[in-house]
Amino acid sequence: MTSGIELGNTQALTHMIESMRKGKLEVVYNDTPLEIGRKLGEGNTKTVYDAIIEGNPFALGLPNTVDSIDTVKTVTSMVQEWTVALQEPANTDRIRAMGLFVNPTCEVMRVDINGVPFPILKMTRYQDLSFQVMDGSNSHSSTIDSNLLPEEFDDAYYEEHLANMLPDLQVLTQNGAQVNEDSINICIVDRKPRIYFSDLGDAEFELIPEEGLPGIAKRYTMHLHLTFKNGLTEAECQKHRAFFDSNLFRANNSENIYHRLNRRLLHLLCE
Length: 271
Prior knowledge:
271 residues, alpha+beta, Phosphorylase Kinase, domain 1, 2 domains, 7-stranded antiparallel beta sheet, 4-stranded mixed beta sheet, 9 helices, 13 strands, 24% strand
């Protein structure tokens, strides 16, 4: 057994994958079928559903049974991916202990999916958090319901706005943690953007050598603007389209927003 997944029960897991792919989804917890609602979000590894557990609403993370090109996953590949995903609660606890924003509930639940014992993830729904979340990968999962930028602003304002997130990346990195770009979402706290860390199953924790800092800074800062822009409402994004199409975001501009944020984050990391 690995992380609660019965690797030897290939026939049962194959049945579970095939039945889920065909639309059947019956999740039983403590002998009681759970009320499964709408799909809240989906990635390559995990599909998240709205659910009622013992009278309370939660988000349930279940294994995604198809890959990005809609090919049904094998039992082996799904188990390998889900074994990594099940590290999310422990990794979330470690990053929460750094004082950073993560889901307040992230636990493994033992359930039966279509009659097959399987561990899944239980989380607080985005709409139940004390702050709004911008999900750059799944815009329909975002809970942003108002404009985040003023009617008029310049590149200096926008740079400072995004720079509110750099101290979060500083804390993460100086505590020896590295995360995938898909783990970096944005939450709005006191009208300012902060990093909201999620999908942390593949987070790594080890001492980061000084020579590795430039690459980390570049990787994170390239992602910040795209995540922020993708998390805006469609109306607000269109309102500021001319700004987002400006020279500030062109790759051949040595003073573009990515270079500016990269320099600032690298300075923080080397303090």
